[in-house]
């Protein structure tokens, strides 16, 4: 956790025993397989992978719940990281911001270090995200990504 000067950040990190290209592929092209803690599922509605491009998804809960997330990419650096915010829609309409999400990978020996960060506008928003279960939820997603990548290597 950090302070206002660094964006009220929460993060998770995992060592993944797979090369960065395997992790990047799973991170970006196989998100429905790892992005939500089960029994929830993740649906990609639109991904315009470029700064300013639309990022729309829906999380589906086991009891029919639907949580739609709409925002834009702030950065997209293939093989390295992508950054998304919900502060703006694709036509740059402001909306109630909650966070800036940063997903990045970097080589670590013959494997990969995966880090996901959530930066918030206020300490209150960060604490709300913690209370929603950030550590458990994002940790489960990181573990699911790790398992997906390591299974791909073992296959």
Strands ordered across the widest β-sheet = 1-7-6-5-4-3-2
Q: What coarse outline follows from CA principal-axis ratios?
A: globular
Mean pLDDT, as a whole number?
93
Give the CATH H-level superfamily. START domain
Number of domain units: 1
CATH class, named Alpha Beta
How far is the N terminus from the C terminus?
Answer: 37 Å
CATH second-level architecture: 2-Layer Sandwich
* Number of distinct helices: 3
Radius of gyration: 15 Å
Low-confidence stretches: none
Order of helices and strands: EHEEEEEEHH
Biggest β-sheet description: 7 strands, antiparallel
The CATH topology is Alpha-D-Glucose-1,6-Bisphosphate, Chain A, domain 4
Proportion of β residues?
Answer: 35-45%
Structural class: alpha+beta
Number of strands: 7
Q: Please estimate the helix content.
A: 25-40%
Helix-strand layout with pairing:
Layout: E1 9-16, H1 20-29, E2 41-47, E3 54-60, E4 66-77, E5 81-85, E6 100-108, E7 111-119, H2 123-131, H3 134-154
Antiparallel strand pairs: 1-7, 2-3, 3-4, 4-5, 5-6, 6-7
Helix pairs in contact: 1-3
Can you offer a commentary on this structure?
This protein has 155 residues and is an alpha+beta fold. The chain has one domain: START domain (Alpha-D-Glucose-1,6-Bisphosphate, Chain A, domain 4, 2-Layer Sandwich). The protein is 26% helix and 37% strand. It is built from three helices and seven strands. A seven-stranded antiparallel sheet has the order 1-7-6-5-4-3-2, covered by helices on one side. Helix 1 crosses helix 3. The model has no long low-confidence stretch (mean pLDDT 93).
